[in-house]
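Case study 2.
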Amino acid sequence: MIGKVLAAAALMAGLMTTSALAGQTISLTVAAGQPPAALPSLALVGKYFIPEVNKRIKDAKIDVTINWKEAYAGSLLKPYQMLDGIKDGLADVGFVPTIFFPDKLPLEQITLVAPFLTTDIELLDRVMNRLHHTIPAFPAQYAKFNQLRLGGTGADSFELLTTFPVKKFEDIKGRKIGTAGAALAWLRGTGATPVQSNMMEYYNSTKNGVFDGFIVFPSAFPAMKYPEAAPYVTKVGFGAQYSVVLTMNKDSFNKLPPAVQKIFLDVGEQWGIRSDKAYMTAGEAGYKSLPKFHAHLYDFPEEERKKWAFAMPNIAKEWAASMEKQGLPGNQALSALMNEARKDGIKPVRNWDRE
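Prediction:
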């Protein structure tokens, strides 16, 4: 008799659970501080991530419908507000530019402190994914802000746009150059004045004389029209950079059925891979757009690139030491990044980890 009662109770619980999930509609807001047209990875949030999540839920015959709200171009959260905005639940899924959070996401700055490394975005992101899967300190950064990383991506090689020609390293001395976050350190030892800024400010700030140029990736040229404001484009070769993650508020994530959680994680990883591939070609498209802006393109000579790289202090070792002081595996992460690059045949302009 007791067995029959327990069996009936279990059956009832199962029916209640099924009933609770049947026809469930979940509302989620996706936010970004930039416009989708400016960034291939952000464009893929709407073109790939959202529809692919919907498709996989449908294909798995999970009776859940996601009611998506998309809030881009700072309409809900500005770029510098993204991390805390997702933490506080102002949006559920966020396009977070890690470059803007060197203090809050310190380990995510690793490629930025090793410039002149490689233009291979896919290589960099393979390394970063491995670090996230093998070193607990990496995902723990996001747990502190009540969210988890669904996927990460990079951007094509960062380059220099200016209102004046730059043909040798000494040309930037005394000039004001805008950039963001950890990339400000690339100007140390150059004689230039770094100015903290972001993609949404580069055009107007240059036009208004706030600074004389800025550092950005070519894939953003067509949409943001940067060469109109700074028509001298110098391929310095700072390198591809891991710089953006797609995150989700943990409370929102935990409300999803387990099968849907797995879909979000799987699609988030694929979003990163597809974004990497998109950037591999979008950078070239950026260069091809320069004639319509009447811009000038100059390829920095290798000797000038080396001058720039070695004029800087060893910012990678400085970063690793500061991570270690915080109890974070800075040395391990830096060695992994550089070794992986060298295994793939990359010959860094400067071996940051070996000095």
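The chain has 13 helices and nine strands.
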